[in-house]
Amino acid sequence: MALRITIDGREIRVETGTTILEAVEGLDIHIPTLCYHGGARPYRACQICRVEIEDEQGRRRVASACTMPVRREGQQVYTRSEAVLEARREALQSLLASHPKVDWLWEMAEELGVAIPESPVGPAPEGCILCGLCARTCSEVLGIEAITYDRHALGDGELPLRVDPSACIGCGACAAVCPTGVIKQDDRDGWRQMEWWGMERAEIELQRCAGCGEYFASPGALAQARKRVRGSLPMSDFCPTCRALAARQKLTLEIRT
Amino acid sequence: MERTIYVEPERCLGCSSCELACAVAHSQSGELFQAIRENLLSEPRLQVEVVGDQPLPLHCLHCEDAPCVQVCPTEAMAKTGPGEPVICDRERCVGCSLCVLACPYGVLRLDRGGKKVLKCDLCIGRLGQGLEPACAEACPSSAIQFLPLEEIDQREGDGWRKEFLIVYRGQAALISQAGG
After folding, report:
1. Which domain does A222 fall in, by range?
2. Mean pLDDT, range A173-197, rounded to an integer
3. pLDDT digits (tens, 9 = 90+) for A4-37
4. Which of the pair, A144 or A97, is modelled with greater confidence?
5. Per the CB < 8 Å rule, is A176 touching B94?
6. A161 domain residue, yes or no
7. How buried is A39 (Cβ within 10 angstroms: 0-12 exposed, 13-18 middle, 19+ buried)?
8. Of the candidates A181, A184, A176, A145, which has an alpha carbon nearest to the alpha carbon of residue A162?
9. Domain count, chain A
10. I need a surface site. Which of A141, A143, A209, B158 has the fewest CB within 10 A?
């Protein structure tokens, strides 16, 4: 069912259950996000994407745009109100206090006019803000469960993120989605080196191309691709360039003859 | 009239004009002189590689039963219907590279930062505006052309490029829709 809602005074039509963040997609309304990724389940860990919504009685309250669905005809949403900016400043301030070395947070702070915390507490060399996007991607999206998130550990003051380096398939998705860039992937001399939060490491031996002999893939990721595809994967022992050239080789041979 | 991308490898000079045009067409601004100053430098969705001494533009073939769509864990990679191109929703891509490993034609790559896959979208935005795909428009030697199917049929008959044309032909339905 389609509903009409108003965001910052603009009336739009969206399907029931669409989140506010999804609703502004394609509009020139910007809601900042940190731990959100279109490919993983939203989680409202960072509290940056705060917006204000109005209920039936006209009462306003602050909510996270990534998880808050649109449910009511005529709902009012504000993305730039003072209460919203204040909520985002608060979220940023607490993130900055515990993670002063994350550049992205400083850029954001400047944009929102957040006062710089006087005495940043707790050196966080790892730069991780505990949003858990890596764990959601590894465990829920890919089903590998090399990185998992244990909420209860937070209460005990421990790092809630756990990594099992031996389970890592070296696909690199955690490094690709990490918003603060604290998960690193580096291919060197035939080995893929994964490093999580400067603490945990894995080395995965890469497979050579059956054609040119270059290292091109981690065997675990290749096995995932083979498992997910219907039927077989032709040429999957070859690197992308050799595959492309083999497919065209026929063309050029024909040209010559 | 239905039109599709048609490659004549023997005409390719290896000048990479198609790569440049592709990168510009997929930049934020769509303009070369602004694109080179953008924070995230745009990258081409096709590559020119050399086979023997013959340079060749390597395009996505928009397979009908595409392996990249099958292996994608987030459904970022999708084909909306028969004859339509395979499009990657960059918002959903988690950079796991399974599609890169699955593509039988080896035309997918991760971007420079390793964050998202680079994927030809057949310039559907440009087609909607009545323009040709950027690579075809930019090619100075007409190695890449955007031709009516009938003309391709006349040129090729049952010739040796048929195998590739069958795949290319899969794109035609969408082009006829976008072009009206």
Report:
1. 133-253
2. 94
3. 999 999 999 999 989 999 999 888 899 999 899 9
4. A144
5. yes
6. yes
7. buried
8. A145
9. 2
10. B158
A235: in domain: yes
Residue A204: the pLDDT is: 96
Name the residue facing A233 among B67, B91, B108 (closest C-beta). Answer: B67
> Same domain, yes or no, for A162 and A226?
yes
Give strand pairing partners of B51.
B54
Looking at the structure, do residues A103 and A140 belong to the same domain, yes or no?
no
A51, A77, A112: which is the final residue of a domain? A112
Amino acid identity, position A253: L
- Angle at the Cα of A40 (from A184 to A1), degrees rounded to 5? 160
pLDDT tens readout for residues A116-134: 655 443 333 467 888 889 9
Q: Is the pTM of this model over 0.80?
A: no
Distance from CA of A156 to the nearest CA of B (A): 31
Domain co-membership, A219 together with A141: yes
In angstroms, rounded to a whole number, what is the distance separating the alpha carbons of residues B169 and B48?
22
Separation in Å, CA A27 to CA A15, A68, A105, A154, B71: 16, 18, 25, 37, 31
CATH code for the domain in which residue A56 is found: 3.10.20.740
Residue of A215, A255, A256 best to disrupt the B interface, most CBs of B under 10 A: A255
Q: With CA atoms as reference, report the closest residue to A247 among A234, A233, A228.
A: A234
Of B93, B101, B106, the CB nearest to A39: B93
Q: Test A173 with B105 for CB contact under 8 angstroms.
A: no
Q: Mapping DSSP to helix (H, G, I), strand (E, B) and coil, where does residue A66 land?
A: coil
**A168 part of contact set with chain B, CB < 8 Å:** no
Q: Report the residue of chain B nearest A175, measured CA to CA.
A: B115
**Residue A212 contacts B, CB cutoff 8 Å:** no
Listed residue (B103, B101, B77) closest to B91, CA to CA: B77
Pairwise CA distance, residues A171 & B72, whole Å: 12
Asked if B92 and A39 come within 8 Å (Cβ–Cβ), the reply is yes
pLDDT of residue A56: 79
pLDDT of B163 over the 60 cut: no
